[in-house]
Each structure stands twice: as structure tokens, then as C-alpha cells.
Amino acid sequence: QDRSNPNDYPTYNYYLQEENGQDRFVLSARKYGKDPRKSKYIISMDPNQVTRRGSGYYGSVESNFVGTKFTIFDRGPKRTPGINPEDERRVLGVVVYEPTVNSTYGSYRKMTALLPNLYKGKDSDGNPLVERWDQVYDMRDMHLLTSKLPEYKKMKDGKMHYCYKWGGRVKLPSTKNFQLVLHGNQDAVVQLFGKMGPNIYACDFTYPLSAHQAFAIAMTSIDSKLCMMF
Description:
Layout: E1 11-17, E2 23-31, E3 40-44, E4 57-63, E5 69-73, E6 91-103, E7 106-116, H1 129-136, E8 142-147, E9 151-154, E10 160-163, E11 178-182, E12 189-197, E13 200-205, H2 211-222
Antiparallel strand pairs: 1-2, 2-3, 3-4, 4-5, 5-6, 6-7, 7-8, 8-11, 9-10, 11-12, 12-13
């Protein structure tokens, strides 16, 4: 997280840690727009020009009003009368949040991610997969990821806490920390995201996620949500 410009939204940079210890830049993201009702993030391959008009523009993430649902798009243009349907932006995933589960000694975030596994995100009849799930909960041609259930156990302070096994990757507690698993298999972790230090997070992922999808899902966790504030 880069907050070097206090007059602008912070920029979030995603780096891949090489075996030689060097960091290789992958993607950047920055919140944009003045609409207080929604959160929108630009994702770019150019950390110096995180805009829709920039040559590195790679996609976006957009929320609904209360922050319970985020949609991940690729770099295509929005649907308008002059746009060829084959060129319009595709939905790469949807992240749905439930209110944070709180207790006296901790909390954890409940979330679900839907990932179309067809290139255009449509079925054989041309219907958008995500819209089909919204209407009838039809999961054909989609991957379903859910938040891993944390353990609730006694820690060194003698109190009960929600906790995950991070394998040393995450150092600090945060309500933004999460792990996603394949639906129905709590052992199949496909993404972990958690705080390592001030403004530094770990974001590890594997199939069926791409770097674009994993980074976008991480941005939805970082975003402030009205549904989490009660």
C-alpha cells in the first residue's frame, strides 16, 4: 500500500517474490470515482498510470451500495449501443460478503467468490453465468469458493480467539485477513490474504484463480464496507 500522495487514494501494488529474494511487479490498483454510494477500483499493469485511459489498464472491481457484492471485470469496454457484444467487458468473478462474525475476542470475515470457468462467462445459450447464479443459484460452469472456517481456540493469553494456520505468511491479526477454499473442501485453500506489517499484506493463490482475480478479491477485502460496520 503506497500512501505517498496524501491528496489521492492510495495505490496498492502487487509483487511476486522471486526465489532470489527480489520482488517482481505484477499489478497495481487504485480506487477511483467520486460516487460515495459505490467503491470502484482500477487494476493496471503500469504502477505509474493507474487509470482507465492508461496503456496498462487491465480491468476493474466495482461494488454495490452497501459493499456486500463486488464484481470483477476485465479490460473490455462497458456495454453500450455502439459496442460489439464480443468486445464488451467480461465478468471474471463476483465476491459476496456477509456481515463480519464478531465475538468478544475476535472476528472473521464470511465471503463467497464465484468464478466463471468459460472464457466469455456465458453458457451455451448466451446467458451470463453470474446473472444465472443470481437468479436460480445455478452453479454449472462455475467455481465456487467460500471462506475457510477458522478455529476457535484458547491462545497464549488464556482467551478464546478465531485463528487460521498461516504457515508463517501472516504476522498480524486483522478483520481483512481471510482464506478461501474450494466449496465443500475445507482443506483445499486456494487463496490466503493477511497482514504482514504496516501497509504490507501477503496474497498467495493457486488454481482456479489467476493473478488478476486474486488481486481483485484482495482489494474487495481491503475496501471499507457499510455492511461490516454494524
